[in-house]
Design goal:
single chain; TIM Barrel; alpha/beta; elongated; six-stranded antiparallel β-sheet; 361 residues; TATA-Binding Protein; 34% helix
């Protein structure tokens, strides 16, 4: 074991920002109960995160005094109790950042970077497991720590199931994913020529109706979203299709996701053609589904039937929705446009002008 001594903040952040370390980051967000001093809770976390002295705590490397930094090296002869540290001289950098503001208060972010991605992943998991399994009656073993943090360990351990966070979704480059897109259906109430032309998909109107038996039920979708958010570290969900609003149980899905995911869900959004969305705005507002991407391929009503194989009345509904959401401070609105040569490419500057207004991207 060889804890690393880093003399100053400049040296630490030079390593922290180096691409070899940055690309390997593994992180997790843990809940910190607000019934005791947040600094004590972070000290309790850091006390268990030293992994028996393998990682060295540095108290003044971060500009924020509430943030904690730990560093270490794991040679090839690491003890049997530390898993996966088999790569010689793999340097590990750890930052524990306390959340601030109404959205992040009561939470801390644990980030691990290493010269070896597999080591970053293993250390992140072992840190969280060590934290969750720390005996509540253990006394501090490091004299440099403040006393009286046993309560912090007890409350922290009860408020975070690190075994669940250790299953965070990562790719082969050890990057953690926090964004989930849920396709509620492949049905749509339009027949755009570039997506679902009538010649291939028929001209059924796919109006609002219950989903068929081969689709996930509303309860199954809510359960899936809850598992990803509460167990796998997802904090952003977008509902897509097809057109998600053609499901008659759309309100039930929205309310269920909001209720089951709670504050762990930082951003809730939808991609829609907007034709029938207006009737759902009260439910969406109450559920926090406030990020709305509206598909609109032309600003000229006469072009709309040629593009979508639907009447101009659909276009007017979507334009009315966009105007309504632009003036609503609760919603974050974006407009998606598929550019087609000889069809709507002459409208590019008009779309740019449209986005000059407030609350529209």
């Amino acid at each position: 074991m060889a804890p690393v001594d880093i003399p100053n903040a400049g040296d630490f952040f030079s390593m922290w920002r180096h691409h070899a370390y940055h690309l390997s980051e593994q992180s997790a967000v843990v809940s910190i109960t607000t019934s005791f001093d947040c600094r004590d809770s972070l000290l309790a976390l850091a006390r268990s995160a030293t992994l028996g002295g393998v990682l060295k705590l540095h108290s003044q490397l971060d500009a924020n005094p509430n943030n904690l930094v730990l560093c270490g090296k794991f040679p090839a002869d690491s003890p049997e109790g530390i898993q996966c540290f088999t790569l010689p001289n793999a340097t590990v950098l750890v930052r524990i950042e306390v959340g601030t503001g109404p959205q992040y208060a009561g939470k801390a972010r644990v980030a691990v970077r290493s010269s070896e991605p597999v080591v970053a992943l293993a250390v992140r998991d072992d840190l969280l497991l060590a934290f969750a399994e720390l005996p509540v009656d253990a006394e501090p073993s490091d004299p440099n720590f403040d006393s009286g943090a046993a309560q912090g360990r007890r409350l922290l351990a009860s408020s975070c199931d690190a075994k669940q966070w250790s299953k965070a979704v990562s790719d082969k480059f050890a990057r953690q994913h926090t964004y989930l897109r849920l396709s509620l259906t492949d049905k749509c109430n339009m027949r755009c020529q570039y997506c679902m032309p009538p010649s291939l998909y028929g001209d059924d109107n796919d109006e609002i109706k219950p989903p068929s038996a081969n689709y996930l039920t509303a309860d199954e979708i809510v359960t899936l979203a809850s598992e990803f958010v509460n167990d796998l570290g997802i904090n952003k969900i977008r509902l897509t299709g097809g057109e998600p609003t053609v499901r008659s149980d759309f309100p039930r899905i929205v309310e269920g996701i909001a209720e089951s995911c709670g504050q762990r869900l930082g951003q809730f959004g939808i991609t829609t053609n907007g034709v029938v969305l207006e009737r759902h705005l009260p439910v969406m507002r109450a559920a926090g589904l406030l990020h709305v991407n509206v598909s609109l391929d032309t600003l000229v009503a006469a072009k709309f039937p040629m593009i979508s194989n639907r009447p101009e009345a659909y276009w007017r509904r979507t334009r009315k929705l966009i105007d309504s959401l632009r003036s609503d401070p609760d919603f974050r609105l974006k407009v998606n446009c598929v550019v087609m040569r000889g069809v709507n490419d002459d409208e590019l500057l008009d779309f740019v002008e449209l986005t000059r207004e407030e609350n529209l991207n």
